[in-house]
User: Fold this.
Amino acid sequence: MLKKLIAEDLIKSMKEKNQKRVSTLRLINSSIKDFEISLRSKSDSNDINDNDIINILSKMVKQRKESADIFKKGNREDLYDNEIIEIKIIEEFMPKQLSEDKIVSIIDGLILEHEIKDMKDMGIIMGLLKKDYSGQMDLGLASKLIKDKINT
Assistant:
């Protein structure tokens, strides 16, 4: 399980005295713990699965990319570099990202399979992509590609 892998890597990094890695892994653990607490308040089940963790990691990467862009524009190379390092550490625990060609192929298949004709059905495809390919693709890019396909 991904949660166990992250915990083991945290212990290993602490032994190696890799402070940047330790702090990033602690941030990941903290986000996972926050999600588990929110699950407890919503229902009796507080089981977190790998898909939930991948979603958490995806959000963390997205936040850091946005911050990195801001720091780059503000000529804060030190903070920019810090965000990039954190992104690389977080991405180690995520599934391999699909290429744009593969994303286009998946979208084409879903459009044909579900006979999507206009924008009102876009949510169907986005829901399927989130369910089946969470963390494996940039959903912003997927959304843009779907719009381009449907509008042509």
Remarks:
- The domain at 100-151 is CATH 1.10.10 (Arc Repressor Mutant, subunit A).
- DSSP finds seven helices and no strands in the chain.
- The chain has two domains: 2-91, 100-151.
- The two ends are 42 Å apart (CA to CA).
